[in-house]
């Protein structure tokens, strides 16, 4: 056998056999289906469009009969999701409302989960924002909200209080209602 | 005698070269037809093919399991050019978004085919679960079977990002 085929003949047969096996294997691969998928995720993004206080300088204090204290509010120039509030010449029982308009410029509905306030550590101020918590804002929609600020008895005289308010929005279906 | 041996070897060598060339040529053609997304599938190929494909969250409908229309999903088959490929596109997805893609596979071959492996390749931000009943399904010529995949976006997904996944269904 070897004498008739020679070395190259045997080599030829070996290569042909390998190719046949490869062909059989390749034929199996040929029966393949593909599903190619692409997932593009959306975006949660909010911005504060405007903010104002109901007791700017020169106005009678809310609920009072005199112009004593005043409150200014502005959007943080470095972060349009934060508001900087400054209370000047405040006093115990001084209260003020800060109104803001939030805009959903993302692609996913959101809900206001929490309001994070960097208020003075001694508890001189109480800041609440109950009317906006849990409210849903759809993409491209604006929503007006209000936070309430109350100066407590422990407030220090001759002190200007400045604090920031951050609004923590979450994807609408990830919102967790506050506990009882 | 030695001259005869040399001539014989040259003939074998020439044959070997010709066979290798043919093999390379045919492999080159075949491998082009095999590539996902390829447009060189030859008319007359008789592989298993997708005959239909749909998603349970087309544009303009409430997201499955949610109360809003936020994300959407489409599924298309390259029916004319390459019916062995289906393309799924999910838009504006978010963590916990989930949709199901249903499809029908037809055995367009002349022999029976058994689905042996369903292989999913997906990044960790995406979960893709394939119909567990597909593997082991045997299709007679022209017979069809339905299958599905479920795609879910995990909490690891980041905003404004594109993720790709592949489902490879092998049969023999």
Folded structure, characterized:
The complex is a heterodimer of chains A (180) and B (172). Chain A is an alpha+beta fold and 180 residues long. Chain A is built from one helix and ten strands; from the N terminus they run αββββββββββ. Chain A has one helix spanning 2-29, and strands spanning 32-41, 46-53, 70-75, 82-88, 95-104, 110-117, 125-128, 136-137, 142-151, 161-171. With 172 residues, chain B is an alpha+beta fold. Helix content of chain B is 19%, strand content 42%. Chain B contains one helix and nine strands, in the order αβββββββββ. In chain B, the strands form three sheets. In chain B, strands 1-4-8-6 form a four-stranded antiparallel beta sheet, with no helix packed on it. Chain B has a three-stranded antiparallel beta sheet with strand order 7-5-9, with no helix packed on it. Classes of the chains: A alpha+beta (180), B alpha+beta (172). At the A-B interface, α1 and β1 of A face α1, β1, β3, β4 and β8 of B. β1 of chain A pairs parallel with β3 (82-93) of chain B.
Brief description of this entry?
The complex is a heterodimer of chains A (180) and B (172). With 180 residues, chain A is of the alpha+beta class. Chain A contains 1 helix and 10 strands.
DSSP helix fraction of chain A:
10-25%
Order of helices and strands of chain A: HEEEEEEEEEE
* DSSP E strands of chain A, number: 10
Shape field of chain A: rod-shaped
CA(first)-CA(last) distance of chain A: 93 Å
Helix content of chain B: 10-25%
Mean pLDDT of chain A: 87
Q: Distance between the terminal alpha carbons of chain B, to the nearest Å? A: 50 Å
The helix-strand sequence of chain B is: HEEEEEEEEE
Instruction: Look at the helices and sheets of chain B and give the structural class.
Output: alpha+beta
Strand content of chain A: 35-45%
Q: Please give the largest β-sheet of chain B.
A: 4 strands, antiparallel
> The biggest beta sheet of chain A, please?
5 strands, antiparallel
């Amino acid at each position: 056998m070897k004498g008739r085929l020679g070395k190259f003949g045997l080599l030829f047969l070996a290569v042909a056999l390998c190719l046949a096996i490869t062909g059989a294997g390749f034929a199996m691969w040929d029966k393949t289906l593909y599903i190619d998928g692409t997932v593009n995720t959306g975006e949660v993004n909010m911005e504060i469009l405007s903010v104002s206080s109901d007791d700017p300088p020169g106005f009678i204090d809310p609920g009072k009969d005199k112009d004593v204290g005043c409150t200014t509010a502005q959007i943080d120039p470095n972060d349009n999701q934060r508001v900087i509030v400054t209370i000047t010449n405040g006093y115990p029982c001084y209260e003020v409302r800060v109104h803001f308009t939030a805009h959903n410029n993302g692609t996913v509905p959101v809900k206001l989960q929490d309001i994070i306030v960097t208020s003075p550590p001694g508890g001189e101020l109480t800041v609440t924002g109950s009317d906006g918590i849990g409210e849903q804002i759809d993409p491209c929609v604006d929503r007006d909200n209000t936070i309430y600020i109350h100066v407590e008895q422990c407030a220090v005289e001759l002190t200007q209080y400045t604090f920031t308010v951050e609004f923590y929005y979450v994807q609408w279906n990830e919102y967790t209602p506050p506990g009882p | 005698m030695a001259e005869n041996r040399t001539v014989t070897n040259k003939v074998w060598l020439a044959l070997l070269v010709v066979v290798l060339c043919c093999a390379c040529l045919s492999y080159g053609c075949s491998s082009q037809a095999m590539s996902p997304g390829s447009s060189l599938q030859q008319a007359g190929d008789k592989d298993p093919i997708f005959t239909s494909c749909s998603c349970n969250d087309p544009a303009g409908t409430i997201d499955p399991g949610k109360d809003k229309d936020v994300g959407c999903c489409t599924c298309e088959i390259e029916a004319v050019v390459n019916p062995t490929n289906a393309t799924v596109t999910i838009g504006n997805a978010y963590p916990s978004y989930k949709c199901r893609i249903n499809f029908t596979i037809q055995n367009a071959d002349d022999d029976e085919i058994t689905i042996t492996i369903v292989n999913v390749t997906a990044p960790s931000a995406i979960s893709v679960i394939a119909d567990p009943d597909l593997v082991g399904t045997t299709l007679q010529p022209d017979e069809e079977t339905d299958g599905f995949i479920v795609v879910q976006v995990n909490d690891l997904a980041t905003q404004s990002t594109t993720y790709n996944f592949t489902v490879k269904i092998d049969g023999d």
